[in-house]
């Protein structure tokens, strides 16, 4: 596997030159949006805009408040699959829209704050979004050949603006389908309130969901280029950095036994994405192999996982050619004792995973002898090197079930363990699959780690 290169995402420039249109307090923003033309900018005043209708923003029209702590918009209307700011276009088209400097409150009824279908070149920043039903921000790209691209979301706070039930959860930032050049950075997502969404304005069949959901979720959709028959998705050339995600310990999903995931890539392929300099308190899940096996599927670096009680695994890497380096995984600070498997692949898929690199990370455990990486698929060309493991006597690799048979060579080298360790074991001691060949060199044991 080649060395990883840091990449930079460049967004298309905005060319917003036309009228500034002030929307007085007490007026419907939607009325002014309907009268605006491409290049116009709606200026919102300091104060509260009450009882607002949903708005369709045409391409080239932007909205700017007087400041995220000065302009408040309240909306309390139910409409399926509709954002307060509704952006729609054809696949591959550009919106050249900027939404900034305001607070949006969905009052636990309204579907989403911003829903963008197909329009590229969108910026959302310096904004607070809270109390929406499905998502704070939704992104939809339905074309595998003309992906939704050039989206930047930054300087934001999102609070409890998604939902979950006992079989699934959505994301406070939710994206579907085919996406390229997505940047989300310098923001906080708090998803720690499991109160039920049961306002009478919500249709009966949509009530009873818990309100927090996941922080960010990317997932598949129907491919418009295949007659909407295939359900698939892919995200490429994107960065997610300087984010803080605050989850509650468990969700409604799976009867309350599943952690509220911070960041999930669900059944969507990844290629050349970076997740860096983020603060997690729950799980990051990358759970689909890329059929092309690109040189780099995902680069996970310099993140901090300060794990809360109830979270037993923090990193799912069910894909080849992923680099996980310079992260800290900390169960010690909150004295978490239920470490089921610190990381690995455990979604029942059987594809051989190759080219995973786990290096220069720090693992801190509280009175545990955990399995560090658990797999129910076979692995090959797997390298675990120069990591530091504090607390417990872990098993580095644990294989689970007959689907993990056929693993190739794995390398465990140059690591420092506070106590003893076991290179390879089984999750269930009755398993009879053969162990992979292990290169186990230059690992150290010391009681002097601080």
Account of the 3D structure:
With 450 residues, this protein is mostly beta strands. 2% of the residues lie in helices and 45% in strands. The protein is built from one helix and 42 strands. The strands form five sheets. It has a 29-stranded parallel β-sheet that branches. β17 (221-222) and β18 (231-232) form a beta hairpin. Residues 12-16 have low confidence and may be disordered.
In which range does the helix fraction lie?
under 10%
Shape: elongated
If you average the pLDDT, what whole number results? 90
Instruction: Quote the distance from N terminus to C terminus.
Output: 33 Å
Question: Using DSSP, what is the number of strands?
Answer: 42
Signal peptide: 1-18
InterPro entries: Pectin_lyas_fold, Pectin_lyase_fold/virulence
Keywords: Signal
What is the element layout, followed by pairings?
Blueprint: E1 20-23, H1 29-35, E2 41-44, E3 47-49, E4 55-56, E5 62-64, E6 71-74, E7 83-88, E8 94-105, E9 112-117, E10 120-130, E11 135-141, E12 148-159, E13 171-191, E14 196-197, E15 209-210, E16 214-219, E17 221-222, E18 231-232, E19 234-247, E20 263-266, E21 269-276, E22 279-280, E23 284-286, E24 298-301, E25 304-306, E26 315-317, E27 322-325, E28 328-330, E29 343-345, E30 353-354, E31 357-359, E32 362-364, E33 371-375, E34 379-380, E35 382-385, E36 388-390, E37 395-399, E38 410-413, E39 416-417, E40 422-426, E41 438-441, E42 444-445
Parallel strand pairs: 1-2, 2-5, 3-6, 4-7, 5-8, 6-8, 7-9, 8-10, 9-11, 10-12, 11-13, 12-13, 13-16, 13-19, 16-20, 19-21, 20-23, 21-24, 22-25, 23-26, 24-27, 25-28, 26-29, 27-31, 28-32, 29-33, 30-34, 31-35, 32-36, 33-37, 35-38, 36-39, 37-40, 38-41, 39-42
Antiparallel strand pairs: 14-15, 17-18
